[in-house]
Design a protein that fits this description.
Layout (H helix, E strand, L loop, with lengths): L1 H13 L1 H76 L6 H32 L1
């Protein structure tokens, strides 16, 4: 220990200890500054990551909302189509009974017979009068 004290006295005489202390202080300050910058960069990266996560979360929520809105719209369209289909089915005439079918066919045959009879009569008179 006495040797260290001797060395320190010798260095003090040359004022090297003061410059060494200043150099060491500067080095420590520089290292501290680098460490602060590194910590600040890490904080910035962390904030950016959190911001990205928030944006991603918002985007997913918006997509979910849009999908739900589209599902509602599709559901409404399907419901309208079902209602229209039911209305069309209600608006259709009822099917004819077998009696009605036969009755209509008989009336058509009679009408055709009358038309042929009228044409035959006109043809007969035309050639008879000549």
């Amino acid at each position: 220990m006495p040797e260290e004290i001797e060395e320190k006295k010798e260095f003090l005489k040359r004022e090297e200890i003061k410059t060494m202390a200043k150099d060491i202080a500067r080095l420590r300050e520089a290292e501290a500054q680098k460490e602060r910058e590194r910590i600040a960069a890490l904080k910035i990266e962390e904030e950016k990551k959190e911001e990205r996560e928030k944006i991603e979360k918002k985007r997913k929520e918006e997509e979910k909302r849009e999908i739900e809105e589209e599902r509602k719209i599709v559901k409404e369209i399907r419901e309208r189509a079902r209602r229209r289909k039911k209305e069309k089915i209600k608006g259709l005439p009822r099917p004819l009974s077998p009696f009605e079918k036969i009755f209509i066919r008989v009336i058509l045959i009679i009408l055709l017979f009358l038309i042929f009879a009228f044409l035959f009569t006109l043809w007969y008179w035309y050639f008879k009068l000549r």
